[in-house]
User: Fold this.
Amino acid sequence: MSGHSKWATIKRKKGATDAKRGALFTKLARQITIAAREGGDPEYNFKLRLAVDKAKANAMPRDNIERAIKRGAGTDKDTLLEELLYEGYGPHGIAVLMQIVTDNRNRTIGDIRRLFTRANGNLGEAGSVAWQFEARGHIIIETQGQSEDKLFEIALEAGADDIQFADGEAEIYTNPGDLQIVREALTRQKLHITESELIMVPKTTIAIEPVEAVQVMHLMENLEELDDVTKVYSNLEVTDEALAAMENAV
Assistant:
């Protein structure tokens, strides 16, 4: 399991406070609204189905989900949301890519710039960082005591590119266009999917000293806490030593 994924898994398993859960619901609602612009029926809109499934997995109330779908489908008018991509360099030259959904890009860019400046990083121009990442389909399943060899075989037969194991879970990677096909094939095998989404993966990673890595991870956590930021990616190689240093720094 990649370091960044390992770090994300640790944070997910710790759970969220009520305050953070409220912020999460805001992010999830915005993702649903954006996805629903391409059609308000999850059965025919795979992007919307992924967003709704993610919201349900995080115990988002049904009414919230339905309101977000109506906003996106145009049946419930609300403030205009934009989907943006911001790029920058964090401390020690680590590339950072941010997916944004906002109703006020001036507010968003101001909030993000302040965090980068405080961390001794800087925002970049469009294209300055994105070329270092590629889109991948990403599915996490619970291994449920099944053999890794068997799951590996199932994933490959379903059309996956790669599968990695750790801590009772398996991470499955696909081509972006194959995510729906692989997901449905795994579902037919009665496997428990805990996450399924399109993500950005660094083409190469950079290893730095654990104390320096902690500075980058703190920046990423601060960015993720902003309501307008839906996802943060970096090319940082998150080692076990860096994770230990991060836990000690909290």
Strands lie at 82-89, 95-102, 122-123, 133-142, 162-166, 169-174, 193-202, 229-234. The radius of gyration is 18 Å. The domain at 132-202 is CATH 3.30.70.980 (Alpha-Beta Plaits).
